[in-house]
Specification:
Elements (H helix, E strand, L loop, with lengths): L1 H15 L8 H15 L4 H4 L3 E3 L8 H10 L4 H27 L3 H8 L6 H4 L3 H20 L5 H17 L1 H21 L5 H32 L11 H10 L10 H26 L7 H15 L10 H5 L1 H11 L6 H38 L8 E7 L32 E3 L12 E3 L5 H4 L15 H7 L7 E5 L9 H13 E6 L5 E6 L16
Parallel strand pairs: 2-3, 2-5
Antiparallel strand pairs: 1-4, 5-7, 6-7
């Protein structure tokens, strides 16, 4: 009952405000809307000049497919809430199901792992990465349930699940396969009374079974990695920094410093439970198949400290991978036989700590939602089928008194993408179309990250753009509207801001200011209230 109550508490923040703002969330929502419109061939003539299809089968598609499907019958803001609720349920129930299968303390460990739902990567808007963690648990759980009797139907279902995991994110896929392999090795090694030959025959059989199930996904993963050669980058973090971040559980600090005290308390409590568990296991020396997750814990810990800074297009790996050793540890500890008394002693403080974290974050989440709502009202001054350049001058967002909404995370770096979910617009800050692995891609001839960005580019603080040059350098390049976010006196002295203001003054008219002045809309001179009404060029 306590675990169910805590699960409901974790779902509540998603529904308390109009928007649950994350860093990349608005961009996922916008690109899913474009994907849906292209599939339905709605405004195709408008979109096709700027966007093309990714013709490869790549990871990072699942959130777009799900959000596009939800937006086919729900407004965008509600579709995002349903998606995030689904993610929380997949993560929590998957961990609970897997934990119960491998040991008697699965429910307790599922409760202790619940705060990792709101890890830093989710708040960054890494929807595919975080969803893949929940699917990891479900794939391993289904394998353990069905391994003794793999019927053709179960093989097919497992293959589909693993394929879905590939289209979500490679990290979840890789660790699901590692977990299954280690579980099989541990289980057969501990099976009493088997001859060595029988153990090897069993391992060979299960290797073949697993390979057949995972083959389509592994082939797609290999093709993806082949297309992105040499994409690894060095890790800028020192061992000392990584160690302190791990023991302080900084992945639970998303908004401000005060979260760190509760995250540290949670990490200390979890660490103490782990120390007691390891001591007990070494003392009793009673091993079970679930001890495979001891090896998962070790591998994730080694990867965390030996990781590159980026790989195959994925960046900020240190903060992405920080939660994985904790997940491995909690799964391993599910094999412990805790008495009801000790389970209660562990569960109640954990519930108090996670509730405190949730309550502490609520004011920031409300401020972020209110700011996002104001930002979105800028779209009321922009007609459909226009090319819009959002320029953010405060990725952290600002309250009405000028203070930052979120001091640690860039919640509004792509906040302007919320404008594109209610009407067909081309948003020139659409970073996803520039990555090469999401479903929608910029056509090279018009890519604003190539032809519009200057110096450090559109996403820099403050942004640096050459609006007149875009029309000259890019085929069919144009900017109909510019929307500035939090451009105030604090950034006016910067040369990039001065250059942008010069371009706006010469070529645009300010036509709209949102209620509290955080967003301003500029229209290209010569355009009427109906905006650009020309017929798009036929793209190549």
């Amino acid at each position: 009952m306590l675990a169910l109550l805590c699960l409901c508490l974790h779902i509540l923040p998603v529904w308390l405000n109009h928007f649950f703002v994350t860093g990349d969330g608005p961009s996922h929502l916008y690109n899913a809307r474009v994907l849906l419109d292209l599939i339905r061939q709605k405004d195709w003539d408008f979109y096709q000049t700027f966007y093309g299809w990714n013709r490869n089968f790549d990871p990072n598609w699942m959130s777009h497919i799900l959000l596009a499907g939800l937006q086919s019958f729900l407004p965008a803001w509600l579709a995002e809430k349903v998606y995030l609720t689904g993610y929380i349920l997949v993560f929590a129930t998957g961990f609970w199901r897997l934990g119960r299968q491998i040991g008697p303390s699965g429910e307790l460990m599922a409760l202790l792992a619940l705060p990792l739902v709101y890890q830093y990567p989710l708040m960054m808007g890494f929807y595919n990465f975080t969803l893949s963690l929940g699917l990891w648990f479900w794939v391993v759980s289904c394998w353990i349930s069905w391994r003794a009797h793999l019927t053709p139907l179960r093989r097919l279902l497992l293959s589909v699940l693993v394929l879905l995991l590939f289209f979500t994110h490679p990290v979840g896929l890789v660790f699901a396969l590692i977990s299954i392999a280690l579980y099989e090795i541990t289980a057969i090694s501990l099976e009493p009374g088997l001859a060595l030959r029988a153990r090897w025959e069993h391992l060979l059989k299960m290797t073949i079974e697993g390979s057949v199930v995972a083959l389509p996904s592994l082939m797609l993963l290999a093709a993806y990695l082949y297309r992105r050669p040499g994409a690894s980058s060095p890790n800028p973090e020192t061992f000392h920094r990584l160690f302190h971040d791990m023991i302080e559980l900084t992945t639970l600090r998303s908004y401000f410093t005060e979260e760190g005290y509760w995250a540290l308390a949670y990490a200390v409590a979890g660490g103490l439970v782990l120390v007691v568990f390891v001591g007990s296991r070494l003392w009793k020396r009673h091993w079970v198949a679930g001890d495979a997750f001891m090896l998962v814990f070790g591998i994730t810990l080694l990867l965390y400290f030996k990781q590159p800074g980026g790989f195959a297009g994925a960046g900020v790996l240190p903060i992405r991978l920080q939660a994985l050793p904790w997940i491995g540890a909690f799964l391993w500890m599910a094999t412990a036989q805790w008495s009801p008394r000790w389970q209660l002693i562990a569960a109640i403080p954990a519930a108090v700590l996670m509730t405190a974290l949730l309550v502490l974050r609520l004011p920031v989440q409300q401020q972020a939602s209110q700011a996002a709502e104001e930002y979105q009202t800028a779209v009321s001054a922009i007609p459909p089928r226009q090319v819009v350049l959002p320029l953010s001058y405060s990725h952290n967002g600002k309250n009405l008194d000028g203070s930052q909404i979120a001091k640690r995370i860039w919640l509004f770096m792509h906040g302007g993408d919320y404008m594109g979910v209610s009407k067909p617009l081309i948003l020139l800050g659409n970073y996803e179309a520039n990555t090469g692995y999401f479903p929608i891609m910029w056509r090279h001839q018009i890519n604003p990250f190539v032809y519009l960005s200057t110096q450090e580019g559109i996403e820099f603080q403050p942004p640096s753009v050459d609006i007149p040059g875009y029309a000259e350098k890019a085929r069919w390049g144009r900017v109909d509207y510019v929307v500035t976010w939090c451009m105030d006196s604090t950034v006016m002295d910067h040369p990039y801001t001065q250059l942008t203001m010069k371009q706006l003054t010469e070529d645009f008219d300010e036509i709209f200011t949102t209620k509290h002045g955080r967003a301003r809309v500029y229209r290209k001179k010569g355009l009427g209230p109906e905006g650009y009404v020309g017929i798009p060029e036929k793209s190549l």
